[in-house]
Structures are given as C-alpha cells and as structure tokens.
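> Could you send the Sulfur carrier protein ThiS adenylyltransferase prediction when you get a chance?

Sure thing. Input:
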Amino acid sequence: MDEHKLKNAKIGIAGLGGLGSNVAVSLARIGVGNLVLVDFDVVEKSNLNRQYYFLKHVGIHKTEALKEIILNINPSVSLEIKTTKISKNNIIELFKDVDILVEALDDPKEKALLINIFLKNFEHKKIVAASGISGYSSSNSIKTKKVLKNLYVVGDENIKSNSDNKLFLAPRVAIVANHQANMVLRLILGKEEV
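Output:
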C-alpha cells in the first residue's frame, strides 16, 4: 500500500452522523493524512446507538467531538473542521480543496443537492455516497456501485417496506460506512472499479 498517497490525500466528509463519524474514524485508522469534517449538529444521546461518539460528547458539536476522537486515534491527521450547515450556497467553498468527497447526509434532498453541485463544479473529483442503510436485513445485500464516472453509491437496493427499515442501527450503518471508507481507500490508491 502506498502510504505516501494516503498521507497526502485530502478527504471531505459531509455529515458526521452514523456514516460520517464511522468513515472518518476508519480513514484516520488507515493513515489518511487530511480530513475536512463538516456538520452543524451536536451529539445527542439518541445518536449513540450508531454514531462514533461517547456519552461524554452529548451536547458537543459533532465536529469538535470527532476531532477529539480522531486525534486520540491518530494525532498525525490534519483536521479541518467546519461547524456549519451545508447548503447550495456553501458546497463549493466547503469542499473545493478535497480530493474525494464522502456524502454522509440524512436528508435525500440534501444528498441530491450536494452530489449534483459537487459533480457539476468538480468534474475531475470523486464522490462516494450512501443510500439504503436502515434496518437489520442481511449484510450481504449492501453493495458498492459505480453509477457515474465520478460517483460511487453504497447501499441496499433491495429495501422492502417493513417496520425494521425505519430503524438506524450500528451494524448496517457501520457496514455501509466502511464500504464507503474502503472505496475512498481504493480511489486514493488509483483503483476506480468496485
């Protein structure tokens, strides 16, 4: 593995909930050198069932809590935290310097907005998004797909409409997050196929 590429890579993470917090931790653990972490929210007790935070972080901005966690894991990671809500007016400014963007937002409209603006303005950059992660269906249904030249989507295309799909739980959220982190790793190393 090319540690130089990992150390020099700059990865943006849009949203630091269940997906984003777990992706960030995985990338820090494998030696990605630069992370841009963007979220406006604070950690709530209800987040602890799937997000990479601890009880002591309740009430603290997710950006600050995750900064503490990551620096305890890998103090050599360069962190840029931006405690702000992502909107159509700031997407370009927030992520203009990243090599790869991880989409980890909750709202489908916000996801689409981020992806569309990012791909339109940064045609040479890659984005790794996620969809269909709730419930406790089989882990084997989660896949990473390359859907456009620069867009990869991780998720479960076979979501059935039943009550378990309204639950967001640690196992499937972490599986999707680590699919995202692994795809980012592959892209850093020049592997563009899934």
